[in-house]
Structure formats: structure tokens, C-alpha cells
Amino acid sequence: RVLFRSSYFLCQILLLNSRFSETDKLRIYELYFETLRAAHAGQALDIKGLSYLMPEVVESGDGEFLEKRVLATHRLKSAVPARTSAEMGAILAQGTPEQIEGMGNFFEMLGLAYQIIDDVLNLRGFQNNLKSRGEDISHGKVTMPVAKAMSQLPLSERRWLWETISSKPTDLALISAVIEKLEKCNALDACEQQARDLVESAWQKLDPLIRDSDVKIRLRAFGWYVFERHY
């Protein structure tokens, strides 16, 4: 999150640096406003939520449709800012067009994976306890695990799941029952696997584009941290 927020203030520093070409400055300027547009739109979508889609999804069981909407919010809110920050760095390092694209894609997938794992940890519990377990449920929020469950559960259980979540329960036993339902249909495991696949696929594309170095090793380790973290 620090990376995403710092990108709001990074652009001015870079644009004032005289050693960068006007072409590079223009591209950075464009990326900066791309970040602002995406992040603000993503925040707005996150605040609005996806509850309005749930009656239709519950009846149809079309979890894939819902997953795409969740990913769209994650992409705008977190993945695009991560991507544009990485592209800025690659441009200033005088990377090739392929390297700039590869680095941007890798960090975009890191942003998506981070948010997906955040959804999972909200239900399984954060190691540092900064957030209450099941907070998303008590807020009635539609997250990736809920979207995946819609494809796995029969109609009666889909109805129970959404009726319970939409009631914004505060009873810990009821919240635990929702989490147990999501665990039993493998929605949380599926989210973890999706996050891992996103990062690993992006790394396979980036790996041959950058030379082996200590920095590359740390970049690889950072990718593992995103889907292995517990806080």
C-alpha cells in the first residue's frame, strides 16, 4: 500500500530531474495520470461494492462473471498503480520496450495477487491481528472467495451464503459458519492458487528479459512473499 500511495508523489520529483529526457518525462507524466484515474475509479468501485449483482449471480451460479468484476476493482485500485510505478522505474533505468512491458506486467499481477490474498487473509486471519477475522463478512462485502463459492455451491447454499453475508452479521458463530462454508467448497484454496498462478506466469515472461543479479533474486523473492504472506 505504501508503494501505491507514494506513486502519487513520485511523479513531480522525477519530472523536476533535469537528467531525464523530455520523452521520458512525458511518458512518466502520462503514467502518473493513468495511475490517478485508475486508483480513484477502483476506490469508487470498491466503496460501491458488488451487492447489486448478487441476486442474479446467486440464482444463476455464474461465479465467473462475478470474479471478473472483483478482479476489475482489484486491477484499478491496486494493480494499475503497481504497474505504472514499475514502468516508471524501468523507463528511468533505460530499459528496452520489452523490459518495461515485462516489469509492468509482473507488478500488475503482484497487485492483483496481493488483493486476492488480502481477501483470503481477511477470512483466515491476519498474523498481526490488525484486522478482525471475517471483517469483510460483517461489512457485507463481496470478495473473491465469495465469487468463487458461487460457482461451487448448490442454489440453496448460495442463497444462504448471500442472505447471511448481506445481513452484515456481527455474531462470531455466524461469521465462522460462513468462513467454514467457503473453506469446505475450496473457495479460499482456489483464491490462493489463482494468486500464485498470476505471479508465476508473469515471472516466466519477465525472467528472460532481465539479467541475473542480486536485485533480480530479491524481485523474485518479493513475488513469493505476496502469495505466501500471513499479514
Question: Explain this structure to me?
Answer:
There is one protein chain. With 231 residues, the protein is an all-alpha fold. The protein is 77% helix and 0% strand. The protein contains eleven helices and no strands. Helix 1 packs antiparallel against helix 2 and helix 4 packs antiparallel against helix 7. The longest helix is centred in the middle third of the chain and has 30 residues. The radius of gyration is 19 Å and the shape is elongated. The two termini are 13 Å apart. The mean pLDDT is 90.
List the helices and strands and how they pair.
Blueprint: H1 2-15, H2 22-48, H3 54-60, H4 63-92, H5 97-124, H6 135-138, H7 144-152, H8 155-166, H9 172-184, H10 187-206, H11 214-228
